[in-house]
Structure prediction request, 152 residues.
Amino acid sequence: MRILPRRWNAEVMAMVAVLVVVGAELLVLVLATPGQRPVISGVLLGSAAAVLVVFGEVWHVLRRRHRRGGHPRGPGREGETWFSAEALEGFPADDIRQWLVGPDAIDPNRFHAAWVLAAHGRDVRWIVRHLDLPEEAVRLLVGAARQREGVG
Prediction:
């Protein structure tokens, strides 16, 4: 499983943006004549504040949208449970048997979790990235889960 994130998080991006704005402001102030410095400082501070407000609003909207996201985070409102007795119905054990046997066998519980996630709409890339399973096996699980949805 991946411990370090692939992308920079929002806090790091905000810190880099602040450092760039501060660096630009200091450069302009050093190059400006003493009579122009108060006006330039006011303009730079105002623009930095506007950028910070816009960045904060965009970040807030994206986080709110991500929280409401397209994929459910828990059981549905109708009393649906993710890990019920019927959750593994249709699980393609024969298709993934090659990854379950041998000295480098993968824990079957990871495949069961991948099956449940696939049945609830997660895609191949997401499951591979978060459960660290072979992509070919996850493709089989996602395909079988989609076939099960179409039949049921």
In short: The helical segments are 10-31, 37-68, 97-100, 108-119, 124-131, 135-151.
